[in-house]
């Protein structure tokens, strides 16, 4: 326990602590307008994806777009979105959504395999 750094000791001491709503609001106000580096954004992406990043398949079989489909995206677009999000460092959900002219929710659902699920 003595080999821990100062930051690790503080982290352990505060583990499980609940923040008040006022404290959360103050933290949010303090973080407003701060820009993050690409390296920090990549760490956040890794944390949010968790273990699913390692289990994402490179070329999952997708249900192809039909003539009756209302989707703005094709199966190839979905493959490219997943590949770019997992492999490119500076790519974010927001940037992909702007590029493909769809909502951020749509890109998030694609990346998390909530929509365009692999064919079983």
Structure report:
By secondary structure, the protein is mostly helical. It has one domain (37-120). 54% of the residues lie in helices and 0% in strands. The chain has helices spanning 6-14, 21-31, 38-49, 52-55, 75-87, 93-100, 104-111. It is elongated. The termini are far apart.
Number of domains: 1
* Range of helix content: 40-55%
| Gross morphology | elongated
Report the structural category: mainly alpha
Distance between the termini: 49 Å
Number of helices: 7
Q: Supply Rg.
A: 19 Å
Largest sheet properties = none
Proportion in β-strands: under 5%
Give the integer mean of the pLDDT values: 79
Question: Which residue ranges are poorly predicted, with pLDDT under 50 across at least 5 consecutive positions?
Answer: none
Number of strands: 0
SSE order:
HHHHHHH
Protein name: Nuclease associated modular domain-containing protein
Region (Disordered): 1-21, 41-71
Domain Nuclease associated modular: 15-31, 32-48
Biased composition (Basic and acidic residues): 1-11
